[in-house]
Amino acid sequence: MNIVRYSYPSYRSLASLPGGFSRSPWAGLETEIDRLFAATLPAAAGTGFPVDLYEDPNHAYVRAELPGVNRDDIQVEMTDGVLTITAVRKVPAVEGQTEQSSTFTRSLTIPAEISADQVSAAYENGVLTVTLPKREEAKPKKITVAVQ
Fold first, then answer.
1. Are 62 and 52 in contact (CB under 8 A)?
2. 68: closest CA among 106, 45, 101, 105?
3. Residue boundaries of the structural domains of the chain
4. Element (H, E) at 103
């Protein structure tokens, strides 16, 4: 499991006052709002899309909502522990205009406990679900306690 540690910039943490510099009471809130908007920019720019990650004892799952994307325009690749999902959304040509398309890509690092040769994907009603089976040695095992 990868742990991501975020460090928050504090460029707004000082506000100028007549007596000198002191911490603004709004600095923390401003920083958090800036961080939230910065986190959504890649998806808003059309380069990525949100995914849901969840697991059960036998599988890990990646779920992505891709409305308006044709099944044939979705590619799922697993290379060297990285799952890459690429989708192309095409808008049909209108009078005097050419066909327009937008490409969305998302890459995720997959833990070593996943059996890469058994990965499968299904697309239904605009939702892509990638199933990542866990290796047998990575699955939890129930151990019975013997009475002596």
1. yes
2. 101
3. 14-44, 51-138
4. strand 100-109
Distance, in Å, from the CA atom of 117 to the CA atom of 128, rounded to the nearest integer, reads 19
pLDDT one-digit tens code per residue, 82-92: 999 999 988 88
Phi and psi at 18, nearest 5°, equal: -55, -35
Nearest alpha-carbon partner for 133 in 77, 62, 74: 62
The token pair at 90 is 């095409």
Q: Which two tokens stand for residue 112?
A: 């070593």
pLDDT tens readout for residues 17-53: 455 455 667 777 777 777 777 665 554 455 578 888 9
Helix H or strand E encompassing 105: strand 100-109
Least Cα distance to 102 among 116, 120, 115, 88 occurs for 88
The single-letter DSSP state of residue 114 is B
Pairing of strands 59-65, 51-55: antiparallel
Q: What whole-number distance in Å separates Cα of residue 30 and Cα of residue 88?
A: 36
Give CATH for domain 51-138. 2.60.40.790
User: Taking the model in full, what pTM does it have?
Assistant: 0.61
